[in-house]
Structure formats: structure tokens, C-alpha cells
């Protein structure tokens, strides 16, 4: 059995500070005082007007959040520019608004200048820029690396900096709509101390009863390129997905893709890699049988999505509707219109499948997942359609609808890049890293238990060694794999080996002794209102880990326990269901 390692990153705190997460959610900024509130209506022309700015930092990054009155796309088609006096000396750098700026960076052109020992043209990656969201809005967050070096010199040379923001009218950076502040610059002093650790995740599944889904843009048929076998093999063998949505498989057939995955992850007895291709580049490869598949037609002459109905049995007593999507890329009004049509078509297909009336009718309450490279680089309206079912072109694609079974919105997984608090899914290229790849799902019938964006370049040396990876592996594509583990017990329960157990029972773990993983089985004979609790204790009776604590249906269940982070020794596992309690001993032997 492959080793599973759950990575929890803990730190000892000098003082606790919330980590800022670059994830399109701004709740984590609530404890950060705003640096400046720009007066409303002080813009000199046009409708662009700055509102509020927040600034904070950790040891690695300068974090900035900025609000504007006008919707823009952060990294395209704008001339919003930041100037930073990084040595707090008005006599050095470029004179702007009374400060001496060592850094000038224009967001919409993804470029700028550094004024250190020499004047140097720079790109976004020279300063470690990452921002969110990629689609239009008027509230943005971004980072700049504090250890950036340009032309051999440190970018940040003082613990105190000054900042000016300007919204220019053109690339000449002369006339502006608004700037903030009106004179001088905002002063900010870097704070010391440690912050909350990044979000936790597990590269391997923590429970065999969960369902692992992976969305991956493999870049121009890269997965069948034999020159890239090593990198893709490392990635797939580390992740071990069960359902894989692949885009940019243009020339390869679905069977060719499945054969490659079979090479990476050979099938065991009774296993198979089922596969199907729809439209030009959409491939689904699955451990579960594909009952039906359909192209999703849009009215723009470019079909970009495929729908697949899977039979999850015998692992789960349910079908699943999976849509793999790759809408039109790039900015511009025409691309925006095509992309909106494609998202409207996806949601129209789901509406008809749920309500009877389309090419497919699905059973109530089955899981629904939409995944792929969504290319959300234009109007935010497309993202809103994906989540809410609010169709823009109703005359073509029909009425709006609530896409989840409970009458609400779909949920956005929003995983984080391994060992970071950021959500980008693209490797650096012509644009800064951004979140283009998504997994969206029906949260009323499925629950996320683990998720991450797999970037081997952000793994620790221990992680690379543990999973046999090279730090450069995920550079094999310009997109990173998105991995999500789901608990389907809201509709299906864990995998059941015996549908009619006769008694409450906790079985001896197997193998025993074990290193580092073992399987624990138990049975529930009757429906109970009590939570099912399965906990691990050391030899002194101290609780080490809670494996399970929730209501469950009658059946026989199997849970995998991973003890990679524990020393050798005797441990106990205890099952409690109401008045029933049973404890057994197990031995971890390194």
C-alpha cells in the first residue's frame, strides 16, 4: 500500500497573526487596519476612482489590497500603477508625488521598472507578483516578494516604505484618472513576528472511502509525449486520482490518454481505466464506468465542454454527473461573449438534466462536479453563472435555475497551492500565476475533506523524497493539477462490505504490526442517532487523533489510519456508538 503522509505545518508563535490568503475572499483582511481611505469623487477625470487600501506583511511577502469604484481586470487592459519607495529616501529612485520610487509596476501590462543602481525594465516574475482574482472586479489582493533582487540589488532596502497608486489613462503614464494619496506617499513599516501556518492538506488520501478527483490541463497533448514520461509519472503516482478531467488533449484519443495513465498507475485485479473523449480536447479517465457522455453545445461554433455520467458502484451506491470544461481563452469582448455562451450552455445542460427535458436525465441527489481550465479572465458574470445558474443569454439557453439539489448555489472548492496560502493554478508565462482551473460541486450531497493545487516546486525536501518527486516536475505543463477529495457519505455512506451486519463490532486492524498505514473495520447493525466516534490513543491514554465523529447509516465500514507522523510503539483505537464501546490494541513498528 502506498504511504500516505498528512502534512500539518505548525509554528511556535511570538504573537499570533492571521495569514493573508490570496484566494478572492477578503475576510482574512478584517483584522488589518486600512492604510488609507481615499476621498470619494476626487478623481480628475473618467469614472476610475480609488477607494480603500490595506497593507500588511509576513517574512516573505508584502500584501496589498486595493478597492476601486470601476470594475477592471487586474492583470490586463488597465494602466493602474503602483510606486514604492523601498529605501524610504525621497532623494533616490524615480521622483513621483514627492517620494523616490525604486519600484514602478503597471498591473495591466504586467511590467514596470526598477530604479536601483541602474534603471531596469522588469516583468511580474522579477518581483514575485501574484494577484487575485483573474476576472473583473473592483476589489483585489496581491503580493510582492520581499526578497526580490533586481540587477544584483535587493529591492527592499528599508524596514519602512512609502506607496503611491495611480490610475493612468494610457501607457505613457502621464495623465491619470486618479491617484492616491494626492501628495506624498502612504508610509508603512514592516512588522516582525510569525503568522498562522498555511492551510493543511494531504498529498495522499487520508481515507480509502473518499473519492479523489483531479482536474488537469496537460498542455498540448503533453501527457502522451514520451519525453515527458518521468514528470507525468511522478505526478500521477503521487496523487493517485480516481476520476481525471483532462483538457488540451487535442490529437490524442481518450484510449491513448488512458493507456498512459495505466502506465503511470497500473490497474489491479478488477480495475480498469474507463475513458471517453468529447469535443476537441476534453477527455475523462475514470476508475468508474462511464454510462453516457455528451458534448455540450454552445451557440458560438466552439463547443468546449463534455458531460459524463459515471456509475460509482460498487464503491458508492450512486451515479455522478461530471462536466469537464475548457471555455474560450483570453481577454477581449469577443472572447468574453463566447465564454459566456459556453458557461450558459453548461448550466442549461445541468438544468435540463435535473428537471427532465434534455439529452440526459439524472437521478435526484446524485453528485454533480464541474471541473477544468475555465479561462476566467474576463467579466465576473461568467463566474457568477457557473456558481449561481444565472444564465445571461436566456433566449438561447433557457431560464435561470438553482443548480444545487437544495435550491442553492454550487460550491467552489478553492484549494490552495501546496505549502502556500495562494490559489493560483498556472505556472508563470505571459501572465502572472492565476486561478484558471476550478472544481465546482453540489455541496448539498458531497463534502470536501481535503484539497490542494499540486506544485512540486513548493514542496519541502522531505515531501519530495517521500513521494519520489523532483521539484521541477509540475513545470511539465503551464497549469498545475487541482486535487479534491470528497466524502460522499451524505448520500452513499462509506464503502460497505456487508449490507446486513448483525452486531456492533470493532475488528482487529490489518496489517498489525503496521508501518505506516493500517486498515480498521467496524460494523453498525441498526440505525442510531448517536455519532460514531473512532479515536486513536497512545499507551498513556492520550488522544492522538480523531478518525471519525459523525452519524452514520447501518453497514460495515473500513477506514485507513496513517501513522507516518508517529513514533513506533503501542497504540489503541476505540469505537464509541452511544452505549457501545470497544477498544483494541495495535503496534506501529518502524
Ranges where pLDDT stays below 50 over 5 or more residues in a row are: 1-16, 492-498
Category from helices, strands and their pairing: mainly beta
Give the overall shape, derived from the CA principal axes: globular
Query: What's the main sheet like?
Result: 7 strands, antiparallel
CA radius of gyration: 26 Å
* Secondary structure tally: strands: 37
CA-to-CA gap between the ends? 15 Å
Strand content bin: 35-45%
Helix content: 10-25%
- In DSSP terms (H or I, runs of 4 or more residues), the helix count works out at 6
Average of per-residue pLDDT values: 91
Quaternary status of these chains? single chain
Please describe what this structure looks like.
- There is one protein chain.
- The chain is mostly beta strands and 590 residues long.
- 11% of the residues lie in helices and 35% in strands.
- It contains six helices and 37 strands.
- Helix 3 (333-355) runs parallel beside helix 4 (381-388).
- The chain is globular and about 80 Å long.
- 46% of the residues are buried.
Amino acid at each position: 500500500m502506498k504511504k500516505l503522509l498528512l502534512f500539518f505545518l505548525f509554528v511556535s508563535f511570538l504573537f499570533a497573526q492571521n495569514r493573508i490568503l490570496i484566494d478572492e475572499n477578503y475576510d482574512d483582511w478584517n483584522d488589518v487596519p486600512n492604510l488609507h481611505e481615499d476621498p470619494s469623487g476626487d478623481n480628475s477625470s473618467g469614472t476610475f476612482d480609488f477607494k480603500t487600501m490595506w497593507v500588511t506583511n509576513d517574512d516573505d511577502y508584502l500584501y496589498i489590497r486595493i478597492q476601486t469604484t470601476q470594475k477592471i481586470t487586474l492583470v490586463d487592459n488597465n494602466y493602474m500603477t503602483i510606486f514604492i519607495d523601498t529605501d524610504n529616501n525621497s532623494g533616490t529612485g524615480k521622483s513621483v508625488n514627492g517620494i523616490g520610487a525604486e519600484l514602478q509596476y503597471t498591473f495591466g501590462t504586467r511590467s514596470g521598472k526598477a530604479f536601483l543602481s541602474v534603471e531596469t525594465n522588469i516583468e511580474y516574475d522579477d518581483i514575485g507578483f501574484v494577484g487575485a482574482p483573474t476576472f473583473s472586479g473592483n476589489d483585489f489582493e496581491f503580493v510582492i516578494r520581499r526578497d526580490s533582487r533586481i540587477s544584483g540589488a535587493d529591492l527592499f532596502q528599508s524596514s519602512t516604505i512609502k506607496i503611491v497608486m495611480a490610475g493612468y489613462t494610457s501607457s505613457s503614464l502621464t495623465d491619470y484618472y486618479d491617484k492616491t494619496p494626492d501628495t506624498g506617499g502612504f508610509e508603512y513599516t514592516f512588522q516582525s513576528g510569525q503568522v498562522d501556518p498555511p492551510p493543511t492538506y494531504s498529498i495522499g488520501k487520508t481515507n480509502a472511502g473518499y473519492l479523489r478527483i483531479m482536474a488537469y490541463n496537460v498542455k498540448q497533448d503533453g501527457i502522451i509525449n514520451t519525453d515527458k514520461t518521468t514528470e507525468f509519472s511522478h505526478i500521477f503516482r503521487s496523487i493517485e486520482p480516481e476520476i481525471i478531467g483532462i483538457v488540451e488533449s487535442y490529437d490524442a484519443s481518450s484510449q491513448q490518454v488512458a493507456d498512459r495513465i495505466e502506465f503511470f498507475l497500473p490497474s489491479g485485479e478488477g480495475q480498469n481505466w474507463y475513458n471517453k473523449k468529447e469535443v476537441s480536447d476534453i477527455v475523462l479517465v475514470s476508475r468508474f464506468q462511464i454510462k453516457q457522455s455528451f458534448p455540450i453545445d454552445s451557440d458560438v461554433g466552439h463547443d468546449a465542454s463534455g458531460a459524463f455520467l459515471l456509475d460509482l458502484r460498487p464503491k458508492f451506491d450512486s451515479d455522478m454527473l461530471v462536466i469537464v470544461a475548457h471555455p474560450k481563452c483570453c481577454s477581449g469582448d469577443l472572447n468574453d461573449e463566447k465564454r459566456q455562451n459556453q458557461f450558459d450552455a453548461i448550466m442549461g445542460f445541468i438544468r435540463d438534466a435535473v428537471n427532465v427535458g434534455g439529452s440526459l436525465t439524472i437521478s435526484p441527489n446524485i453528485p454533480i462536479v464541474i471541473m477544468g481550465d475555465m479561462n476566467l479572465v474576463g467579466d465576473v458574470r461568467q463566474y457568477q453563472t457557473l456558481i449561481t445558474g444565472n444564465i445571461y443569454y436566456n433566449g438561447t439557453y433557457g431560464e435561470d435555475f438553482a443548480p444545487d439539489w437544495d435550491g442553492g448555489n454550487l460550491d467552489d472548492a478553492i484549494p490552495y497551492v501546496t505549502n502556500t496560502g495562494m490559489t493560483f493554478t498556472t505556472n508563470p508565462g505571459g501572465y502572472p500565476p492565476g486561478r484558471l482551473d476550478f472544481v465546482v460541486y453540489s455541496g448539498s450531497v458531497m463534502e470536501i475533506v481535503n484539497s490542494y493545487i499540486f506544485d512540486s516546486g513548493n514542496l519541502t525536501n522531505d515531501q519530495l523524497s517521500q513521494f519520489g518527486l523532483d521539484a521541477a516536475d509540475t513545470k511539465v505543463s503551464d497549469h498545475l493539477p487541482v486535487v479534491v477529495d470528497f466524502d460522499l457519505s451524505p448520500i452513499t455512506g462509506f464503502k460497505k462490505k456487508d449490507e446486513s451486519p448483525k452486531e456492533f463490532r470493532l475488528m482487529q486492524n490489518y496489517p498489525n504490526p503496521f508501518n505506516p498505514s493500517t486498515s480498521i473495520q467496524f460494523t453498525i447493525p441498526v440505525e442510531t442517532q448517536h455519532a460514531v466516534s473512532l479515536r486513536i490513543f497512545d499507551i498513556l491514554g492520550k488522544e492522538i487523533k480523531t478518525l471519525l465523529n459523525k452519524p452514520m447509516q447501518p453497514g460495515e465500514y473500513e477506514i485507513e489510519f496513517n501513522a507516518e507522523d508517529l513514533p513506533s510503539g503501542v497504540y489503541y483505537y476505540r469505537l464509541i456508538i452511544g452505549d457501545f464501546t470497544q477498544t483494541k490494541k495495535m503496534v506501529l513498528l518502524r
